Amino acid sequence: MVKALIFNGKTDVGVKRQTNQDSFAVLPLEDGSVFAIVCDGMGGANAGNVASSLAVKIITDFVERSYRFGINYSSAVSILNNAISSANLEIYDWALKNPELKGMGTTVVASIISKDFTAIAHVGDSRAYFVNEDIHQITKDHSVVQSLIESGKLTPEEARVHPRRNVITRALGIEENIIPDNSECNMNLNDTLLLCSDGLSNFVEADVIKNIINNNSINTVADALIAEANKNGGGDNITAVVVRKD
User: 5-245: which CATH number, 3.30.70.2390, 3.30.420.100, 2.160.10.10, 3.60.40.10?
Assistant: First the structure.
């Protein structure tokens, strides 16, 4: 029987970047549920940081205002999608009003995790993974290489080293309207949800992520994942948020 949801998160600049354009939040909601979000900004050091920070703040505030005790999965999805749409429009408007921020945008992966359901919404290539004795990538990247994989022009192995592997096809703040993709997973006792930026997924193999998650406490797992990404080159900002059913 699930007693509680426990969680932790951390972000790191990595080895090769000078600034951190990732942002995240993870917090309890009023009925023991948990909200988690990871954003990876783009558009130059300042603009990327502004976009990801704005997205996390706007979406988190929206969820906290809108969440009600005991809501169901479909209501949680509506809250996430409306929160993301609101953030998208505000980031888009900021870029229009501030020429130095032109072209800024951010990915987002966000989740409401209750004892009964896990609702996920995402835009871009920040990911959600479900981990128990195995690991499953829940989200599908909005990226050039993912499109090439789906069309049969690339294998997943080739995609990992493709020169356009970091080019995304959907992001918050680039157009007036955005449509997130939604996913659901059923979490049981000791199962873990991981939200992460591509600074983790591009530098640590899925099986290694699984082993680190399954062999660390909730308080040390984000640090361990980040340490592994940095050991493997740390070529990007790294963010990991974990929520476990305890």
Answer: 3.60.40.10
